[in-house]
Amino acid sequence: MIIDVYNKLTVLSDSAKYDVACTSSGVDRKGKFGSIGSAAKAGICHSFSADGRCISLLKVLMTNVCIFDCKYCVNRVSNDIERVAFTPHELAELTINFYRRNYIEGLFLSSGVIKSPNHTTEQLIKALELLRSVYHFNGYIHVKAIPGADSELITRLGLLADRMSINIELPSQESLTLLAPNKTKESILRPMGLITAKIQENCTDLVKYRHASKFVPAGQSTQLIVGATPDTDHKILTLTEGLYKKYHLKRVFFSAYMPVAENSLLPSMDTKPPLLREHRLYQADWLLRFYGFEAKELLDEQNPNFNLQVDPKCNWALNHLEKFPLEINKAPFEMLLRVPGIGVTSAQRILMARRNSPIDFSGLKKIGVVLKRAQYFITCKGKIMDGLKVTSDGTIRALMADQYKLPSPYPEQLSFFNEPFITREDVQQCLTGQI
Amino acid sequence: MLDGTDLIYAYDGSFEGLMCCVFESYQRKEIPSVIRPPSVQETLFDTAKWIETDEQKADRVYNSIPMKISPQAQEFVKLGFLTCDPHKEMLIFRFLRLGFKHGGKVMMMLTDDTVCSLQKAVRHLTSESHKFKGFVRFSVYGEVLIAVIEPKNYVLPLLSPHFCDRYRNERFMIYDKTHGMALIFQSQKAELIFVEELTLPDVDSAELEYRRLWKQFYKTIAIEGRNNPRCRMTFMPKRYWSQMTEFDEIVGLAQWQVAETGAKEPQTSLCTLDARSTYKISPDYKVTKKDLFHV
């Protein structure tokens, strides 16, 4: 029987790996006597796979049987692959035994759609109920809500899990119709809205009754595929911002499209996953969540995609040189956050340190500010950094120096003659890709 | 005040001992240039001044920290003592002198060399201990879970609350090979003890099977097209790999053979966590209360 589990684990984790979310964050829960497990708010990574992604949860499908035919997915009904399913008991044994050995932080359970969305959800509930009440598992559980399932079932599922997610996958209705004919925007957004409403309702319940059971205490997340359809970064980022604001999502994940199927509607099989583009989207996502940026500040209709050479924050700073240089000892927190090379932690440390005494450049370095990037945008006690040559092309070269090795627009060659004077406009245009 | 550039304090390596060094410095109005634990070799022409550990003096210094500086500073100093910084004694010493002079705002003097270096060392400690919350790998021996770690900093006191809370119904042991210490949790009680060596029995077939399943999962979950070994190394440097189940083939180490060859000294006492695994407690068994801060 255990050999059987080995094969099932191989097939079902292989099918689940394209889901990028593997965080175990968002909820603090103490251990309980008689149970095994706890949850840590910051999340804990238990390992890192060869692709550099964190392994925190046992990420598997309940089954890879699926009646849907989403073109981009390995588990689509038209794909000829081996189909298997875990029994709830096998899944619980595996989770508990991995958890005891501290391999994992909990379970990430997803599933193909077997028979109907409702039937699938019932199966998930059965498995989680067994794990929670018979095996007394008190660790983290992330579960997928199945698009199209009844509200009542989703509510029951949510009471067993810490986090729930529904993947939007494709950022527009047109793309959905084309590539995921069994899903509609409505079938995805309705349960998402339901979860949001339930979480809010649960919050007021918890105020009223201390022992009200918790509904997805770690919130919900979703995932968008990048590069399978012609949707622009602007569209993706605007959608992301909307999801944070309207549905109060905890996270939106981006997944660079990996070709797993030959289809005339999809990029060809030898397409490289747009990893750098995915990285830029994550950087922008951080700017939205922690740096007080808005999507419309980063991208617009004229510049619908991120510059691959410069990160979004640098790009913004170079487009708003009129706001710089900033005096470190006076600037408000919100503006410190906008300086390239200063992150949330160093901005907080600056606030703390300058209450005590004025900060100079060597102090900034000790605080952890990346001066290499920040130096062009700041002054300390009214002075720019010693030996800093502020020329537009110097700035651009320095800022690009540690970026990805793309062919430089300026050939590196010593010259007897001065290089032609480059205006600020030139630099901006070059960086924003308007040339 | 005598600011002797060649004044060296030698102490017994305990936290109380270090507090006594601070006491001595204030009492004699002198500043040492080095505070040396017993583990560091004496140099030729060494004229170190031995500082005797005195519980009462230590308490006076320790208890004055929250009053004269701040409770956070006390916590900070305790953490500082657990770090692997080779100059941690002098850092803590200078931090305390600075604190007694400036009061609570010393915690905000982030641009000061001493404060900054001590903070870096403490960050190294806390981030390593956070990593070990995930990277510790237990093996099941009968009813007992046993893990071995090789941390740079002394992380066991920081790991203790996390694992004791998580595995409330288990009996477990985490053996810190670097520092020769072990955290033992059984019947709802945690203990930190010095352990010289650890001999473990063979594992059973169920344990081997779950290791195999885990290795298979580890391999399968990586997406080939995104292979990025450098990124993995950044998050999980190779020094952690030797005690992790998923790498025991790659590293080529027999993970559970941690026993050192030959017992040099007679066994003073033999504890048994499980009938089959034995560990030897070191003869100079001495645990002071402040070594066990968080247990």
Shape of chain B: elongated
Shape-level CATH architecture of the largest domain in chain A: Alpha-Beta Barrel
User: What's the story with the biggest beta sheet of chain A?
Assistant: 6 strands, parallel
Mean pLDDT of chain A: 86
Structure class of chain B = alpha/beta
What Rg of chain B, in angstroms, do the CA atoms define?
A: 22 Å
Highlighted features:
heterodimer, A: about 425 residues, alpha/beta, TIM Barrel, 2 domains, six-stranded parallel beta sheet, two-stranded antiparallel sheet, 16 helices, about 40% helix, globular, disordered C terminus, B: about 300 residues, seven-stranded mixed beta sheet, three-stranded parallel beta sheet, 8 helices
Produce the secondary structure layout.
The complex is a heterodimer of chains A (435) and B (295).
Chain A: H1 2-16, E1 47-48, E2 54-55, E3 57-61, H2 88-100, E4 106-110, H3 117-134, E5 140-144, H4 151-158, E6 163-165, H5 173-179, H6 185-208, E7 220-226, H7 233-246, E8 251-256, H8 275-290, H9 295-298, H10 312-319, E9 326-327, H11 333-336, H12 344-356, H13 361-367, H14 371-374, E10 378-379, H15 392-401, H16 424-432
Parallel strand pairs in A: 3-4, 4-5, 5-6, 6-7, 7-8, 9-10
Antiparallel strand pairs in A: 1-2
Helix pairs in contact in A: 2-3, 3-4, 4-6, 7-8
Chain B: E1 8-10, H1 15-28, E2 34-36, E3 49-50, H2 55-69, H3 71-82, H4 88-102, H5 113-135, E4 139-141, E5 144-149, H6 156-166, E6 171-176, E7 181-186, E8 189-199, H7 205-221, H8 229-235, E9 270-272, E10 278-281
Parallel strand pairs in B: 1-2, 1-3, 5-6
Antiparallel strand pairs in B: 4-5, 6-7, 7-8, 8-10, 9-10
